[in-house]
Amino acid sequence: MNGALAKAIEELDIPVDPDALVEVLWLSDRLAAKVSQAVGAVDSAKLWDLSGATSMRAFLKDKAGLTGATDNGYGQEAHPAPRHRPGVAYW
Length: 91
What we know:
This protein is mainly α. The chain has a domain of 56 residues. Helices cover 49% and strands 0% of the residues. The chain has 3 helices and no strands. It is elongated, with a radius of gyration of 15 Å.
């Protein structure tokens, strides 16, 4: 589904340049916001249940290898999106 994105990331060469770094960080935040939105939508629809998971957190751990320390808060029922990242509409 995201072959073009995966290829672009693999081929990305970030120059040693402050402006390039800022641009890449901004793009990373945009991607994280979209991922948060998708996680929230899958969680709201409880689509994680289709895989046999018992929660979004369990789904992320089993399918994406994310743990509490690495899941950015995606699996929290009360906060399906990371609290430190504003939603897509913020941008």
